[in-house]
Amino acid sequence: MRKQKQRQTHIYVGLLVFVVCWIMSSASHAWQPEVGEKPSPMEQLELVNGQPVNLANYAGKPLVIYFGADWCAPCVANGRPAVLDAFHKYRNKGLQVLFVDLDDPFKFRGKKIAESKEMGFPIAMRAAPTGDQEKLRNFDFGGFGRIQVVPTAIVLDGSGKVVSKIEQGTKLRDQLDGAVAPLVR
Questions:
Q1: How many CB atoms are located within 10 Å of the residue 33 CB?
Q2: Of 170, 179, 164, 159, which Cα lies nearest the Cα of 86?
Q3: What is the C-alpha to C-alpha distance for residues 82 and 134, in angstroms, rounded to an integer?
Q4: Is the peptide bond between 74 and the residue preceding it cis, with omega within 30 degrees of 0?
Q5: Which one, of 39, 41, 51, lies nearest residue 122 by Cα?
Q6: Contact in structure between 46 and 147 (CB atoms under 8 Å)
Q7: Mean pLDDT over all residues of the chain?
Q8: Burial degree of 163 (CB within 10 A; 0-12, 13-18, 19+)
């Protein structure tokens, strides 16, 4: 009986260690910045026209940074339409959008150039590989952080601080307008 209790204790301790390690590894990869912070540069990205992404270029007006892809059904069904709706509703009040497309940049760059012109806002994609393929596959943008879920939208105020982080298509559809509206009044 005593050996059985010791075995159960070892199992519980093992599970506890596993859970703590899992939480810590998830937290270490959680994407930054947090609400109220300014984002770090978005490494390994460039606009589809080849220019580097510089968030300072968007200062002074609210910005929605949208992460999505054509292979992502919730992105196509809910995320992208929610961002387009917000952009069309608030662009005359200064809303800016930066669409970070997570599709393969080598296969789809030409298509994304046309989409960028059609939608009226810039699209960024992963830059040509610099040797760190793991970061590219894991949607890791260096100091900016790692995107955990697509679609995701980050809403910045005019000073460049994060006011909202919204993940998942249905949440984007339900929450994006409410996050943007106070910034454009």
A1: 18
A2: 179
A3: 30
A4: no
A5: 51
A6: no
A7: 82
A8: middle
Over residues 58-98, the pLDDT tens digits come to 999 999 999 999 999 999 999 999 999 999 999 999 999 99
The pair of three-digit structure tokens given for residue 111, joined into one six-digit string: 């298509």
How do residues 133-183 score in pLDDT, each as one tens digit? Answer: 555 556 777 788 888 889 999 999 999 999 999 988 888 889 999 999 999
List the strands of the sheet with 45-47, edge to edge. 45-47, 123-126, 96-101, 63-68, 152-156, 162-167
For residues 16 and 149, what is the distance between their CA atoms, to the nearest angstrom? Answer: 26
Query: In this structure, are residues 83 and 153 in contact, taking their beta carbons and an 8 Å threshold?
Result: yes
Contact 154, 65 (CB under 8 A): yes
